[in-house]
Amino acid sequence: MLTVVGYYDWQSDEKSVSDQDFFVHCSGRYRLLHKEEFQTERPLGAANYQLIYVADGKAHFRIKGKLQILEKGSCVLFHPGDPQFYYYYLKDHPDVYWVHFSCKKDNLFLSQTGWGEENIYNVGVHNSYIHLFDGIIQELQLKQPLCEEQLKLMMQQLLLKMGRNRIRENKTFENYNKEVEEALRIFHLSPEKDFTIREFARERGLNYYRFIDTFTKHVGTSPRQYIINIRMTTAKELLTNPLFQISEVAQLTGYENPLYFSRLFKKIWGLSPTEFRQQAEKGG
Predict the structure, then answer these.
(1) In this record, what's one Pfam family (predicted)?
(2) Per-position b or e across 212-243, b if 16+ CB within 10 A of its CB
């Protein structure tokens, strides 16, 4: 299982609470690669809020005694004390992000952005969510100066984007382009695959220019840049594992030329793979 996590401190978990107005304790990503299943059962729930976002595949939740199978684009908000039962299975190809945070029960920001007492929300598939989750995880890992304030802003931005897009998805889901949904699924399953967008469109009988325009409109970036973003995010995760050489990370993310990979990585993240690895090892 691919596991990437970040903690404010190593005591931060589902038991953590804060008296601050808004505080992020920990965040992470789970993606099953070989393990057949992963399950969490907390009959008494957590002391804080937990937001779980299904970025790809499917995830199983038992909420209020009823089993719910949620697909990508769905999220679950567990309130403090809500029983938590959720299960991931390899056959469903789940790719899930999560975050634990504290805020006051009558927090005005939550209510203003559409987060009520219910647990399940359809917020759609949006690349901006992934960037924010990855940013939150990295902020928790590196703990730069003023990280508490930065985490608060990023968490609120995530909730705001999801709230706005939830309204949009409820109105336009019927018209959501299936070609884009299929592309997103394939890009996430095999981001390292060597193909051109023109070939991708031709294999599916799509008009190349229409596909580019439609994808960019719905996702906010071009298909090629979206694939690069996935690859570079995966590269960051792999670089935190010292067992992988940089040349191996390049190959695993679809780049035969390690020098080209290193230049592209630095262009995206501002650090070379070696510098990023050194910084991650030092914890800041």
Answers:
(1) HTH_18
(2) bebbeebbeeebeebbbbbbbbbbbbbbeeee
The tokens for 130 are 């992934």
- Nearest to residue 53, comparing CAs of 89, 2, 99, 97? 97
Contact 129, 51 (CB under 8 A): no
Domains delineated in the chain? 2-172 (2.60.120.280), 177-282 (1.10.10.60)
pTM of the full structure: 0.62
Take residue 119 and report the two structure tokens written for it: 């647990």
pLDDT tens-digit readout, 241-281: 888 999 999 999 999 999 999 999 999 999 999 999 988 88
Give per-residue pLDDT as tens, 104-136. Answer: 877 888 888 989 888 999 998 888 999 999 999
Please provide residue 28's backbone torsions phi and psi, each rounded to the nearest 5 degrees: -170, 180
Radius of gyration of the chain (CA): 19
